Amino acid sequence: MPKREVAARGAPAETEAQNIAPARGSRLTGALEWLRELGLDLLALVWPSLCVGCGRQDRELCSTCAVEVADAPPDEVHAIPALGVPGFAAGAYEGILRAVLLAYKHRGAYSFGPMLGPRLAVPLRAALAAEHHRQRALDRGAGDALPRAPVWVPLPSRKRRERERGYRHVDVMLRAGLLSGRLPGERLRLLVPRRGRVGQVGLDSAARERNARLIRVRRDAERRLNGRGVILVDDIATTGATLRAAIAVFEAEGVPVVGAVTLCSAERRDAPQKTEWNLTGERG
């Protein structure tokens, strides 16, 4: 039998197999999600808890609040001013978003990190679009060449806080955001806090600036970046001091920072910060 005829007869079988595989994968994902939801409901019966969003007795985060945290209008992106690069936040530091972030960051609610991913994906996409626009403006002679994907760099917490928490909260959130948004770009941890750095909550403006500068770039950063630009990612932007300090240390090493993204943006007011400090028992 001619090879061309064999190939033609085999084509429908391959197409059918390709169609069946995603369907099976979808059914498996659905079954796993159903089992997960069932497990959460059983846990809520055995160990009743209050929803961190609405306060009702339910799961740690009820389904209504979970949807509200993950979903946001596509155009709801807050600009972060005075950074010197395009800066975007997913929302204001208030309401359910604030409550979920506090529980995730300070009370060990690790499962909230993946839930925050879809929300973070919105400003991540905005930063990526701004960077692609910048590259196309610079490379008008490059024709239809695709823009280079940037490197996403999460800002680190203090080592002691990471050990206490048991996870790198910004890194987990960033990974979930990139997966949720199917966004390109490598995720690299290139910043390291220096000795003497403390939490930012409770510090005045000058002290926040000094404290934020206690950070350095890893020695192998230039080799790993290979000429690519950096987009910084953090959980909250208050005065912008932490992001500006990170931009400055990268630029001192000759590395271009092309954007910044946070989950929340907050107007710094001393009274609410002290309230947060008292509620969480933790200083930043």
Task: Produce the secondary structure layout.
Blueprint: H1 3-46, E1 49-50, E2 57-58, H2 63-70, E3 78-79, E4 87-92, H3 95-106, H4 112-138, E5 151-154, H5 159-165, H6 169-181, E6 186-187, E7 191-193, H7 205-212, E8 215-217, H8 221-225, E9 230-237, H9 241-252, E10 257-265, H10 270-280
Parallel strand pairs: 4-10, 5-6, 5-9, 9-10
Antiparallel strand pairs: 1-2, 3-4, 7-8
Helix pairs in contact: 4-6, 7-9
Uncertain residue segments:
1-20, 270-284
For the secondary structure, the number of strands is 10
N-end to C-end Cα span: 73 Å
**Total DSSP helices:** 10
Assembly context of the chains? single chain
* Largest pleated sheet: 6 strands, mixed
What general outline do the C-alpha atoms trace? globular
Strand residue content = 5-15%
Helix content: 40-55%
Mean pLDDT: 81
Q: Based on helices, strands and strand pairing, what is the structural class?
A: alpha/beta
Order of helices and strands: HEEHEEHHEHHEEHEHEHEH
* Spatial extent as radius of gyration: 22 Å
Strand order of the largest sheet: 3-4-10-9-5-6
